[in-house]
Amino acid sequence: MKHRILGKKLGRNFNERKSLWNNQVRSMFIYGKIKTTSAKAKSVLPFVEKIASDIISKPELIARRDLFKYLQNQTWVNNVYTEFKKVFGTQTSNFTTITNIKRRFGDDALIVELAFVKPITFSQIKNPPAGEKIRQPAVKPARPNAGGPAAGVKKIIKKNPPTGGKKETKNVK
Predict the structure, then answer these.
(1) Interior CA angle at 132 toward 130 and 134, to 5°?
(2) Fold for domain 14-116?
């Protein structure tokens, strides 16, 4: 009996499963659909549905923070949030659909497409407005070598020639 056994392990330990879920959710919200196995799609579906319902029902700041946990990029969070609000509006559930595609040749696994019910395209990273500059990372000035050889001077390392694998042995009687 399988009492109190919840979820699928997908042949991975917890950290690997968590990473898989994060990657699948990120891909789902960036591309709008993913192709994966049936077991992986069923295991990631609750995460996608929860985040989608949070975007619609929760206050903006909380929804954006929840979305940032998976996307890890503020520009993507802004794009996904605005597009998702436009497309789904007041819909509160049933954001995704699973469509069977084929059976994989090697192991006969069922490949499915997990997609949003309504067609949605998330815009790529936008260029900043005309008056705004992109922040460039600060470049540190070159440090003079402290105690080492002067800049531009190479050390010459002499290597001993190889012995050719011969060992010197002495016969002692």
Answers:
(1) 115
(2) 50s Ribosomal Protein L17; Chain: A, (3.90.1030)
